[in-house]
């Protein structure tokens, strides 16, 4: 794609902004800002990856992966405002989803250990783990508030915090996993995802593109499952104080009694 062709895609942005203005959505500035960030961030990472690929040192690859993981955790943790220690727990869950999935793919020789393979694959994993973690946090906070009486009744009857919140946790985990599962059900029928489309546009055989896409879908399924379950298991304790009483999180504030955890 030439520079002229790339800049021509700004016409698509203009369409979005015109429609926003027409419907008085007041999203023109947001669309413009998001477009600018898209250009700057992707061009910047393009130059960085070009250097890292040519440099080809393990510590440079690790540094990139760590930075990407931290950014993913920070963005997902925003959904857990008011939950003490949300960032650390989200970071652990996302790192587990990424680490276990990448380790299996390397051990099974599905991908090579070079930065040209590790970084793009890790990026796809992290993006999906980030979304799944955000959904888990959102669902968990909402369900805790809606079902607080049910949880407190279970606690009063002698249930442990884990037992009292079990159904809420299951719903939160499902919420994090459903988008990936739905994508797997409709891939090839409704959508041709990025990996497959990009490989085909690059001139590869469609059957080869299909193989890569199957790998990606199964990889993301494992990663989001690990991240969603891990996050649910490590975050639920933040909703209880030392006396095992339910404490609802407040937006922008730490729940009373849980700060000492």
Radius of gyration: 21 Å
The stretches of 5 or more residues where confidence is low (pLDDT under 50) are: 252-261
Name the beta content range: under 5%
Strand tally, please?
0
Q: How confident is the prediction overall: mean pLDDT?
A: 86
Number of helices: 11
Largest sheet: none
Shape: globular
Layout of secondary structure:
Blueprint (H helix, E strand, L loop, with lengths): L2 H6 L1 H13 L5 H28 L2 H20 L8 H22 L7 H32 L1 H9 L4 H4 L1 H21 L7 H8 L4 H30 L26
Helix pairs in contact: 2-3, 4-5, 4-6, 5-6, 5-11, 6-9, 6-11, 9-11, 10-11
Can you walk through the features of this model?
The protein is 74% helix and 0% strand. The chain is mostly helical and 261 residues long. The chain has 2 domains: 1-55; 58-239, no CATH class. Helix 5 packs across helix 6 (115-146). The longest helix is centred in the middle third of the chain and has 32 residues, at 115-146.
